[in-house]
Amino acid sequence: MSFNFRSVNIKAFLGVEGVSPFENTRAIKVGGYLSYAVFLALLIVVVQLVLDYSDTIQDGFWVSVLVWLVFTTELVINLWLVDNRKRYLKHNWLNVLIIIIVFPWFSYGSEWAAILRGLRLLLFLRVVLDVFGDVVNLLKQNSFGLVLAGAFFFIILAGAIFSVIEGVDFTDGVWYALVTITTVGYGDVVPLTGEGRLFGGALIIIGVALFSLVMANISAFLIGSEQKEREKDILNHVKKMQDHLDVQAELNEKRLAEILSEMSSKVDDLEKRMQAFHAERFDSSLGLLDKKVRMEKEEILQKMRQENEAVLSELRRTTLKKEDNKKT
């Protein structure tokens, strides 16, 4: 099983992570602003320590109180805003420890007080680790680390060659190569021989190219960082839009479900009404049909009565004729 060093959260391990990138947007934004306040407080700590050691300041109690309040305010506000308070305390254990130890109203004695106040500088690890990450990214970009290593060895080699040509100390030769390649040119070490001046001219030309290469890498890194920030902002905006669209789609689905349910209930009601209507029409049709049958039946019976009466009348006439014939 291999150990992936990149997977280790160094800032969390050292207890100076600040607000985790997995927290909510508001906590991350406010935590970033508070980090600037902490950085300014750390600069005040540096000034205070320098003045303490130089005996320029006699009583820095209220400065310590101000710095402590900044640290404590950051801790309290971040704890209030973050979602996972347990993780925040776990990943910022050094912050909590320093706030407790350097409590201004604790009396440790003059020597211990200076040492404990100096512990606040450990919070510079947050800044150092961020800068270290940027430096690592810069060295990785376009093989910039190899360029710097090559420049370093070239300066050493050029210094050695210059010291041999001019007959000066090796350190003076390296110093001359450094100030020449960087195009600074202090003038405290100069070539006196023709070979040395020729070599110095070559160093100037190479220095311009090498210095331009270094600055180009740094500029590309800065531009790339700005571009990454813009891309990050765009991605965040796209994510917000996607979240908004997802919420809107969910609302539309709910509304569609409500509309379909309402339409279904209306269709069911309409079907019931149609069934009732058809049943009523059917009953009405049956009534009309029955009435028609009765009327036809009465008509038939009436015709039969009339025919029977006609037949009876005819029989009576026939009978009367027969009786008349017999009498005669």
TrEMBL record:
The chain crosses the membrane at residues 30-49, 61-81, 93-115, 146-165, 198-223. Pfam families: Ion_trans_2. Gene3D superfamilies: 1.10.287.70, Voltage-gated potassium channels. Chain C. It comes from the Bacteria. InterPro entries: K_chnl_dom, VG_K_chnl, Volt_channel_dom_sf. It is a multi-pass membrane protein. Its main location: membrane. The keyword Transmembrane helix applies. It is found in: Membrane. GO terms for molecular function: voltage-gated potassium channel activity. Residues 152-222 form the Potassium channel domain. One of its GO terms (cellular component) is voltage-gated potassium channel complex. The keyword Coiled coil applies. GO terms for biological process: action potential. Residues 253-321 form a coiled coil. This is pH-gated potassium channel KcsA. Keywords: Coiled coil, Ion channel, Ion transport, Membrane, Transmembrane, Transmembrane helix, Transport.
